[in-house]
Known about the structure:
Blueprint: E1 2-8, E2 17-24, E3 27-32, E4 41-43, E5 48-51, E6 53-58, H1 71-80, E7 83-88, H2 100-110, E8 117-123, H3 133-140, E9 144-150, H4 163-176, E10 180-183, H5 187-200, H6 204-210, H7 213-230, E11 234-236, H8 242-250, E12 253-257, H9 259-263, H10 266-272, H11 285-296, E13 302-303, H12 312-315, H13 333-343, H14 349-363, E14 381-391, E15 410-420, E16 423-427, E17 431-432
Parallel strand pairs: 1-4, 1-5, 6-7, 7-8, 8-9, 9-10, 10-11, 11-12, 12-13
Antiparallel strand pairs: 1-2, 2-3, 5-14, 14-15, 15-16, 16-17
Helix pairs in contact: 4-7, 5-6, 7-8
Bound molecules: zinc ion.
Zinc ion (ZN) binds next to loops.
Amino acid sequence: MLIKNGQVALPGLDEPKIIDVKIEGGKIADIGENLSGDSDIIDASGMYVLPGGIDPHTHFDDPGYTQREDFYHGSCAAASGGITTIIDMPCTSIPPVTDIENLRKKLSAVERKSVIDFGFFGGVSALSLQQNFFENFKKLANYVFGIKTYFISGMDTFPRLNHYQFKKVLEAAKILKIPVLLHAEDFDYVSSATQEMMKRGDSPRDYYLSRPEIAEILAVQNAVEIARLVGADLHIVHITTGKAVEIVKSGPATCETAPHYLAFTLDDFEKIGSPLKVTPPVKTADNREKLWKLLAQGKIDFVASDHAPAPEEEKFSGSIWTDYSGIPGTATLLPFLFSEGLFKKRISFKKLVQIVSENAAKRYGFFGRKGSIEIGKDADLTIIDPEAHWTVKGEKLLSKGKITPFEGMTFSGKIVKTIVRGKVVYDSSAGIVADAGYGKFLSPSN
Length: 446
Ligand SMILES: [Zn+2]
């Protein structure tokens, strides 16, 4: 395959360069001007050619909760949004990925479903910590990109860690040289605030007040202090406040945010209600503006979707307290950042490429294979028409989840083709053109 005349995002360059990309055997074989010698030509004149998006935070819920999402629908949604690799969380499938047997169960359930490449995170809960956890993790560490933990958890199957337990996990992770990912909201604060706010009312604002800015700041402060003490490798997922980002960057840690924290505020949550219910909740407008600035400055390492859809009956349960927390996001991640970040000049072209692809590949140790357009790497590419516009319609999402807070928003720039290892898997006119199972399992050891 030969991609001609595209505006290609080459590593290290501030702006795209008009150049050809040649693909052979699923890899990038050559990059240069006036390349020829291939009959399969894609004319990318006027189009942007980016390294395929990497979404390192999805909940595809498979096996166990496939009424919400499964690997086929989740991966199709991702492909339609220019994502070529996802890393799935360990906690929202049954059994949770806390040991190698459970990982095998998950892999055998999903490996013939994905249309894009995928990896897993493992996890440690208060339950799995009691069950020969270190030996389990030693075996698991070769197959997962990190260990997910929670300071607060809404899942019975995946209970939270207290600070002491978290320190034990960090110590083990340090020996195994694997990052620890944390959902950072303070348990004590949120538990008491929730009890009080539930008595107060049933509005989005009540829910927000049960988990306000300070709940995240306290948790991040504690986590960073414990990581500093241990000397471990910590990553904070879906960060929502500028202050917490500053704490992360003062310590030995990295962080990600999600598009919904860059798009929406508490005021929006009060208007939109449950379709914007996420955990942690969206915050005030000044935090949203700070997150954009910190992203542009490179203090937020990357943006991930936290894709976690749910069907109508779970999303609209009758109370904000019991409505499912989570939204479909992997299809809108890259389009949102392209339109609202790059087009609105909040982030540079180079930064866009870093936060949707390069930085996650580097952070999780597979930059040698993916995350940039370089000779020898997997030919994972996203072709975007910068002149086209499209409007988000939940019912048209390829995810099982159709309820999105981005409903009705018009984005500049449209994904035209998504290419995984040299094969077009999504085409804007033909839809998904890869078979289920084309996507390969990616791990630190393969
Ligand atoms: Zn998540």
